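Before relying on records like the one below, remember that each one covers exactly one chain. Contacts with other chains, cofactors or solvent are not represented anywhere in the record.
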Amino acid sequence: MDEDERPLSPEETLRLIEQQETVVAKRLIPDMTLHHLAWGAAWFVGFGAFFLHHGLSGTPYARIPITVAMALLTGLMALAMLVSVFTVWQLRSPVHGASQERGSLYGLTWFFGFLAMWMIAVRFGSLLPGPERSLLWASLSMMVVAILYMVSGIVWPIRPMFVLGAGVAVLNAVGTAAGPGWHALLIAVGAGGGSIVTGLVSRRRRRR
């Protein structure tokens, strides 16, 4: 009997199954590296600008107009959202049926979540003073992101993404209670830096 035609031992069969499961998992689970890096950079730079504008005690550390900080954060988050849509789009080629529909609905969830956030912030933001208005916009946007991150970690499933979402939710709550400057610092360093680290770790594990 040829060496290639001999029956596989139980150990070899198990090893082959594990290898195939790894290959399938990599095809079905999107590579989240760009997603994490894009959002991490958006938060670090965008909320970093807010931190320099507000300062921890209400005294600005740099003369950055609030409109510039808001435009910077909004623009970077919009780019990050496009990266997220592209990441989910990776699932459309190899996956069909319910999984493909799940990916499409997930992309729409980001859109509708931020649409609802925008409408709430516009409605109530005009009733607040400047610093509190920017805090409202920032905290609502991060609340939407935190929830969607945790849902993403459950749906795909990607445990680091769920953990990151939970961490963002905690930082967002603590920062909102502490004030605009502290919120911007916590999100820039904690959420932004955490997302970048998560992306790098995720990429390293995927290459194994």
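The two ends are 35 Å apart (CA to CA).
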